[in-house]
Design brief:
Layout: H1 19-27, E1 31-34, E2 40-43, E3 55-56
Antiparallel strand pairs: 1-2, 2-3
């Protein structure tokens, strides 16, 4: 959950994105979640994928 929607503002709730992808998440219907396994999953809008199959992030999980 984004910090502005009462999400936590700690390192466990952060992912590193370039400016383009940061704006894409804020200004389109793409979503991102950090799973219990600490891996990111990006969910496309229905206009891109009606089934909204998650797209795994390309980075390895961070050290806990």
């Amino acid at each position: 959950m984004h910090w502005i929607d009462s999400g936590p503002t700690d390192f466990d709730n952060l992912i590193l994105l370039c400016g383009h992808h940061h704006r894409l998440l804020h200004h389109t219907e793409w979503r991102v979640e950090i799973g219990d396994d600490r891996k990111t999953r990006f969910y496309p809008p229905m206009s891109v994928d009606p089934y909204q199959v998650p797209v795994p992030g390309s980075s390895p999980p961070t050290a806990a």
